[in-house]
């Protein structure tokens, strides 16, 4: 199932808290400014303030989970 379809079917699985936690664990704030994510004040990567609006218009197929091929 596509990630977006899963999120629509069970929105409680994809909360703001989960997104903030993932961004903190991934270290995104080391390079990016991300409002609402404590410590996300990086200057090397693009500012992610409007990332939600930017991805809202993209085709859902971009967010589908695809199996990876073994290396």
Output the keywords.
71 residues, mainly alpha, 3 helices, 32% helix, 0% strand
Computed Rg: 14 Å
Q: Give the overall silhouette.
A: globular
Report helical residue fraction. Answer: 25-40%
From the N-terminal CA to the C-terminal CA, the straight-line distance is 24 Å
Average per-residue pLDDT, rounded, comes to 77
Could you spell the SSE succession in H and E letters? HHH
Major beta sheet summary:
none
Topology:
Layout: H1 3-9, H2 16-25, H3 51-56
Question: What does it look like?
Answer:
By secondary structure, the protein is mainly α. Helices cover 32% and strands 0% of the residues. The chain has helices at residues 3-9, 16-25, 51-56. The two termini are 24 Å apart. The model has no long low-confidence stretch (mean pLDDT 77).
Summarize the structure.
The protein has 71 residues and is mainly alpha-helical.
């Amino acid at each position: 199932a596509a990630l977006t379809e899963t999120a629509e079917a069970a929105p409680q699985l994809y909360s703001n808290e989960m997104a903030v936690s993932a961004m903190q664990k991934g270290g995104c704030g080391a390079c990016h400014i991300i409002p609402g994510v404590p410590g996300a004040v990086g200057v090397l990567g693009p500012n992610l303030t409007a990332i939600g609006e930017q991805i809202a218009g993209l085709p859902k197929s971009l967010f589908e989970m695809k199996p990876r091929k073994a290396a």
